Each structure stands twice: as C-alpha cells, then as structure tokens.
Amino acid sequence: MDSEFNWGEAMANIIDGKKISSEIKSELADRVKELKNKGVSICLCVIQVGDDPASSVYVRNKKKGCELIGIESVSYELPENTTQKELLDLIDRLNNDDKINGILVQLPLPSHIDENAVIERISPLKDVDGFHPVSVGNLCIGRPGFVSCTPAGIIELLLRSNIDIQGKECVVLGRSNIVGKPMSILMLRQNATVTIAHSKTSNLKEVCKRADILIVAIGKSRFVNSEYVKDGAVVIDVGINRNDDGKLCGDVDYDDVFEKCSYITPVPGGVGPMTIAMLLKNCVESANLQGKI
Ligand code: GUN
Predict the structure, then answer these.
(1) Pairing outcome for strands 241-242 and 248-249
(2) N or C: which terminus of the chain has fewer CB atoms within 10 Å of its end residue's CB?
(3) What SS3 state is found at 280?
(4) 84 annotated active-site
C-alpha cells in the first residue's frame, strides 16, 4: 500500500515558524491583558520615510501585529524628501513622550539620511529593534536590553523545538549587524561553540559541514546545498529571496538539503514570522526596562 512513502530515506522535521510565532503572540496577548489590568498600556511608534513598497508591507504587518496582541501603535509616514534634521527632531520628541514605549524606524532610509545617526538617536530604552550600539553592547556583555528580533526569534524556534544547543558546534553563515553578529552572540549565550563564516571564508563547505546547527544568512538565493550540510544537522534559513519564477525562496536549497538534515526551517513560514513576534515581545518588555511594571 504505502507505495509513495520511502521508508529508507531520512525525513527532516520541519520547524513551523508560523505556528510557533502564533503561540508567542497568544502568550503576549495574555501578558498585555495582565498589564492593562494593572493600568499599564503599551504603544509602539513606527516611522517610515518614503514609500518603498516592501517597507510599506513590513510596516503594515507590524501595525497589524500590535493590534492582534492588544497594544497601540502610531505611525508616521514621512515623504522621501524628509531631511535628516526633521527625522532626528521627531525621534527626540518621541524619546521624550511618556506615552510612547517603542520607536522603530523602518530601514532602509533614503540615501541622504545617515542610518547610523538615526539609530543612535533612538533612546536605548525605546530601541525595540535592538540596533542601538548600547543594545548591542548590552547583548555582548549579557546585560538586560533589547535584542535584534530575527536572531532572538531563531533562539525561540530552537528552544521551542527542544533542540539541544549547549556544547553543539554552531556555524553562522553571514556577519551582518542585524542577523549574523547578534546571532553568534546569542548562540554563545546558549553555550554553543560558535563559528562565524562568510563569503570570504576559506573552505566554506568544510566549515559549514562541521555544524550541528547551521544558521544561514548570506543573502544569496539557494546558496547552501547538501554539500554544506552534515548528516543530521539542524538547518535554519534566514534568507528571503525570489527565484526566477518570482516565488519566495531562502538561502538554502531546501529540496536538496531536506533529506540530509534532522530539522529545517521552510521559506516562507520559518524564520520570517518570528521577527514580528519578537518585535512585539520587545514592545511588551519595554515597559519593564522603562520601570513601568
Ligand atoms: N528593514 C528590514 N528589516 C528591518 C527590521 O527588522 N527593522 C527595521 N527597522 N527595518 C528593517
């Protein structure tokens, strides 16, 4: 009977980011209710400069996420020709506004605005993206603070899938400020042995093949195939790309790697949904950091 099922082949467990992110959002909604009962309400402010269509989708989804868990959001959709001074002045006002708990400036910004200057202007107490140098420093030395949402979401995926991290070889492929670097620190915090690999790493395939947990954030469509993966490895795909047919795909060649690994995240539906869940978690946490709870 079961003729289509090949019992001889290993099957990877698919890590369902949609399901796990829904669980987290439902936990957050309960927490928000509790806080409301204590008279604490939370408000995120989202700023978009210009009308990049991808950014508009992200901003809309962030606002929808707030609504879902019962926190307020306000947004500023500013014109493309907004000056850096106007944006910094707005951030100053929001930093001083007691009703605003989190401030998020959607990136990328138009080229005439210095992104670092903008990130550094946001109060570290309201930096729900976790991009401020103070947040990054706190992460590195293990102090409380906001953690970049995508890497924090990956830790949740691993922990909630009961994947052992302690003592494991972890290779993070990619070294961006938003994903690769904070990811490596978070895995170190979980007692993994961490290697950061990147496009200039010698013998990249061999290095990746050492990994019990391989986290891929290199930004190249289906770059990692089965030759990069050890038998039984856990593979986390952070990439969001479009293939030649316009379909979403990750940085991992999913079909090629699937039978070799023990766990894998799909694209879409893996890491992606976790980013907003962790942004919402940071918003809820902000009241704590601000001493309001
Ligand atoms: N642009 C793409 N991803 C992000 C993100 O996580 N935060 C912000 N602020 N901008 C982004």
Answers:
(1) antiparallel
(2) N
(3) helix
(4) no
Per-residue pLDDT tens digits for 164-210: 999 999 999 999 999 999 999 999 999 999 999 999 999 999 999 99
Give the amino acid at 150: T
Q: Is 129 in the pocket of ligand 1 (CB under 6 A)?
A: yes
User: Ligand 1 in contact with 107 (CB < 6 A)?
Assistant: yes
Domain ranges in the chain?
A: 39-123, 149-272
The residue to mutate among 47, 76, 106, having the most atoms of ligand 1 within 8 angstroms of its beta carbon, is 106
Could you report the per-residue pLDDT of 72-123, keeping only the tens digit for each?
Answer: 999 999 999 999 999 999 999 999 999 999 999 999 999 999 999 999 999 9
Which alpha helices (H) appear in 127-271, and where do they start and end? 133-141, 149-160, 180-189, 204-209, 254-257
Cα(106) to centroid(ligand 1), Å: 5
Is-same-fold flag (39-123; 149-272)? yes
CATH homologous superfamily, domain 39-123: Leucine Dehydrogenase, chain A, domain 1 (3.40.50.10860)
Strands 193-197 and 213-216: what pairing? unpaired
| Closest atom, ligand 1, to C-alpha of 150 | 6
Superfamily the domain 149-272 falls into: NAD(P)-binding Rossmann-like Domain (3.40.50.720)
